[in-house]
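Researcher: Here's the sequence for the chain we discussed earlier.
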Amino acid sequence: MFTVAALYKFTDLPDYRQLQPVLKGLCESHGIKGTLLLAEEGINGTVSGCRQAIEALKSWFDNDTRFDGIEYKESQSENCPFYRLKVRLKKEIVTLGVPGINPNRQVGTYVTPQDWNKLIQDPDVILIDTRNDYEVRIGTFKGAVDPNTTSFTQFPGVVKKEFDPEKHKKVAMFCTGGIRCEKASAYMLAQGFENVYHLKGGILKYLETVPAQESLWEGDCFVFDQRVTVDHSLSKGTHSLCYGCRSPLSAEDLLSESYEKGVSCPRCVDVVSDHKKRNFRERQKQIALAAEKGQKHIGASRFP
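Model: Thanks. This is the structure I predict for it:
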């Protein structure tokens, strides 16, 4: 079994450029794969490796007080859900695109998974899912507002258009791991919203903590690795990805007349160009040929 570690921390890292080769070398020496993002505002990423390797990475964070209290979640996978390691430098560890919004300076009220149900059942609370539309489609909390965004950078525009500090006195937000809603809370406070709450550790920590029989979560949760989705037990879900548009596909999507294996799906069949479709079909042939030879074509596991 491989351990999959999702982590982030908003913390001042003026030396983030110097940290890149250090972290990359540590991960490479222990066979860790996945993605880590470094910026002056902190660190964000999901990586996978054997138990010993992940413990080595955790020890590295423990030895730097700037990472005290790092948001950290684990799950297990039979296969490594990443093909390679990437340690990248960014302007933001989660891109909102609004200068001056920094959770290290101002942030909403953290709500633990144990207290989340009580909060979101308050009739005075408006519950906002800060994730993108394809993630919300797979699963969300009952009664949550879907901003219908395709990118987090669209969130500020939605707030200005759809929400009012005078009308919406209590706002609760959530996302996959906690990072997007943490930054969203900083933005909403800057816009004059007074009572802003967000789910500490995100959906993944909620699913890990709250028993299924007490859960207000409905559906699966999209994750950014080869598992595509996880269920309430954090086991691999039933969704796969469309190679054409990277949208998650349900069992019903795979039965659609508009679905072509490895090429397109009902959501992109009219959008993907004929040139790309030809390339995708050729790639699919190579996957089939590799399978006939008992070989595995890279990327084939996620894309049905």
